[in-house]
Amino acid sequence: MTTAQSVQSLIDRLEAQAQMDRPAAETPDIGIIMGSDSDLDVMAGSETGRQGAYDVLTEQLGFEEQTDYEAPPESQFTFETFVVSAHRTPELMYTYAETAEDRGLDVIIAGAGGKSADLPNMTASIAYPLPVIGVPVQEKSVDSVIGMPQGAPLVAVDAGKSFNAALSAVQLLARKHPELRERLLAYHDGLQQAVGEVSRDLHERGTTAFRDQ
Ligand code: RP5
Known about the structure:
With 213 residues, the protein is of the alpha/beta class. The chain has helices spanning 3-18, 40-44, 53-60, 90-99, 119-127, 142-146, 162-174, 178-205, 207-212, and strands at residues 30-34, 64-65, 78-83, 107-112, 132-136, 155-156. α5 (119-127) links the parallel β4 (107-112) and β5 (132-136).
């Protein structure tokens, strides 16, 4: 398969899926796209560094990754992941955004790095009115992600915070799925409990013993 054919086959696949009219329960709820696979550690989370969207969705909120559009996994709530470059594969970006709603997505999380991080903002413009949550993969990407003109909305998180983008996406989904609301509350309870435990431990052991443990 040539380079052009490999992109075109993805475009053809997305367009065919948009025509399938699959039941909503069987299509991915969240689409995660990124400008390059070099963004994956930020967008998914890295084993050695900060957690990301993949981690919170799968470990905390009960989502599964859907890797075959026509064969959904067990979980009721799913996401899919693609590399889509605004500058290297503009036709693929256009098709992904344009078909997203017909393919059953409810929200897109789009991340890109560099100074021309245009994937989130262009995807938001094309996929409108589907909500898009932008993730600047690096600090230098923030301005190009969030700098949208009036009338062209994009929700965005701070640089590198794909974890929060996933939480925001699930907040949107939770408006029509009460079980997701419960999972979000349980996650938040866990956060509070962890802070309470570490605070008590630090206070009761004292700083030196706490550091040494
Ligand atoms: C951006 O350029 C991508 O989102 C990535 O963050 C950056 C560098 O991409 P690679 O050269 O590593 O593929 O479009």
